[in-house]
Structure formats: C-alpha cells, structure tokens
Design goal:
- The protein is an all-alpha fold.
- The protein has a domain of 136 residues.
- Helix 2 packs antiparallel against helix 3, helix 6 runs antiparallel to helix 7 and helix 10 packs antiparallel against helix 11.
- It is 60% helix and 1% strand.
- 49% of the residues are buried.
- The chain has twelve helices and two strands; from the N terminus they run H-E-H-H-H-H-H-H-H-H-H-H-E-H.
- A two-stranded parallel sheet has the order 1-2.
Length: 320
C-alpha cells in the first residue's frame, strides 16, 4: 500500500456503526412476519437472526464465532472460512475478535463454515472479481500503483482457495489468466491491452458460475455483501477513510454483487426474479456510504448500512 493510500480521508457525516444484532432486531420487528411468515421457532429462523440473537447475549467477548454458534474460548476464532482465510466470527468483521480476523488486509470471509461449498465458491469468485473491478477503475483513472495492488491480489490471496474447484470444472486456465492480467498491470500497458485480459478472466469466472444452482449463487452474493461490510468496517475505523484499499475493495465487491444480480434476473423464473428485485433494492441503500473510488466526496460513513442490506437480501430469499 502506498503512503497516499494510508492518508486519512475526510467524510462529511460519520455515524455510529450498527451491529448485526441491532439490524436483526430492527428488521425482525418490522419485516420478518411479512417476508417469512413460516418462521415460527428460533431453530427455524434464518441464520442471521439466530446469529444476531447469540451476539446480543455476549457481544464483545469474542463469543459466537462462526454461524454454527461455537463460542467457546474468547478470541479463539472458531469456524474458519471456507476459503481458508479471514477466520473468525460468522460475520467476520475483520478486526479485533477471533484468531486470524483481519489478517492480511482485514478480509474476513463472512458466513464461516456454515456456507454451502457452492455458495462459498460464488463468494470467492466474486471476491477476486471485486478486486479486479476496483483495479480496473483505478487503472483507467491513472492511479497505477493502487491498480497494481488490486490486480495482483486475486492470484496472491485467493486463487489457492478455488484452485481445486476450478480444476474440477476444467477451468484451471484461470490461474494463468490472473497472472497475465497482474503482470500486464505491473508493466503498465495501455488500457487497450488490459481490457481484453480482464475480459478473459471475467469470461472464465462466468463459466464457473454457470452450473451453480441459482439459490446457491444468491447465497454466495449475500456472503460477499457481508465481506464488503467487513472491509468497509476496517476501512473506516476511527470515523474516517483510514484504509483506502479496503474502501476500494468494499466498493468493488458490491459492484460485482449488483452486476451478478442483474445477469441472474435475465434467466430467473417469476418467483426468483421477484426475490432478486428485492435484493437489488436492498443493495441500493449502500450507495449512500460511498464517495468516489478515492474515498472523496460527501457520503455518510456507516458499515451498518451494508450489513443491513445483506440482512434484507437474505430475507428476500424466504421461500426460494
């Protein structure tokens, strides 16, 4: 990370971060009956509701790690993420609690061990694409140093987590494609050369997603939204954009989530299409917590907006 990236950024309005338990309590009171009338017992409630309840009882003590609810041993970080990085709480806020949370760049993986492998793959592919999305925007804007960092992270930080799955799908070429794109950025080639390399990576990612059931794809996108919340939490520690790289990651992840929802809606049946529409409307609220790609401009600073969007997105899936 460059010195410029470490410089605090000014924001116009800072707000207190909402915990997931606060969001859950608010959402549950006003929307759970309407969105999921079949929920009658705590054991049948969505995972985020159960997790919020657990966190409300022992928040701040390092308990409630992972969506499985294992909370023994303060700060021990039970429930490693499916990708093998960013272990810790089910919501993996990327800082402070749990062994390994916030390692590298605070990139908690959200959801923990409870996430279905197919959904975990979708999350991880989106994680890589989100980095590239931010890198491409920065490259085009002329911030080559920052762009190089983002372009290099998918192969440096994430590919090992998806390598086995990609080989099984016959898509092991992704590794070389990511390396070629990262090297091109290092060589500071023109946008005309970067764009097709990026396009080749995206085409392979889309091929990998194509056979994953739609419900698992949606679950993976919700998990990625929570990772975006984790990154944003780290990025805005202290009430300012104190970690620009994580801010850009969060932005890139949410761009990928929305792009994927748009694409999925094209092939969705009526029920799933309606759920996707609700998810996109929930995601729109996150626009208020971002300025431009460099963290400049007038915007409110509240990671809870992103976590709240993820919770509402999950409610939108009731019945699928």
């Amino acid at each position: 990370m460059t010195d410029d990236q470490k410089k605090p950024r000014r924001v116009v309005a800072a707000r207190r971060t909402l915990t997931l338990s606060t969001i859950a309590a608010t959402s549950l009171a006003g929307t759970l009956t309407e969105a999921a009338p079949s929920v009658a017992k705590p054991g049948d409630a969505p995972e985020w509701v159960q997790l919020a309840s657990a966190e409300g009882e022992g928040e701040g003590e390092g308990e409630g790690e992972a969506a499985s609810g294992e909370g023994e041993g303060e700060g021990e970080g039970e429930g490693e993420a499916a990708s093998g990085e960013g272990e810790g709480e089910g919501e993996g806020e990327g800082e402070g609690e749990g062994e390994g949370e916030g390692e590298g760049e605070g990139e908690g993986e959200g959801e923990g061990a409870s996430l279905h492998p197919d959904a975990g793959l979708i999350r991880d592919l989106g994680f890589m694409q989100g980095h590239l999305r931010a890198g491409l925007a920065l490259y085009e804007a002329g911030d080559l140093d920052a762009a190089k960092t983002h372009m290099g992270h998918p192969i440096e930080e994430k590919y090992d987590a998806v390598a086995g799955a990609m080989e099984e799908l016959g898509l092991g070429r992704l590794e070389d494609q990511l390396k070629s794109l990262a090297q091109a950025a290092e060589d500071e080639v023109s946008m005309d050369e970067i764009t097709p390399l990026h396009g080749a990576v995206v085409a392979t990612l889309e091929k990998a997603r194509s056979d994953v059931p739609m419900v698992r794809r949606l679950e993976g996108l919700i998990a990625l939204t929570r990772v975006a919340g984790d990154e944003y939490t780290v990025a805005t520690e202290g009430g300012e954009v104190s970690n620009l790289h994580e801010y850009q990651d969060s932005w890139g992840f949410l761009q990928v989530v929305d792009d994927q929802l748009v694409e999925m809606a094209k092939d969705a049946d009526e029920t799933t299409g309606a759920a996707i529409g609700k998810m996109r409307r929930a995601l729109e609220a996150t626009e208020a917590v971002f300025g431009d790609i460099q963290g400049e401009g007038a915007f409110e600073m509240d990671p809870g907006v992103i976590y709240g969007a993820a919770a509402r997105m999950e409610l939108s899936m009731a019945g699928l």
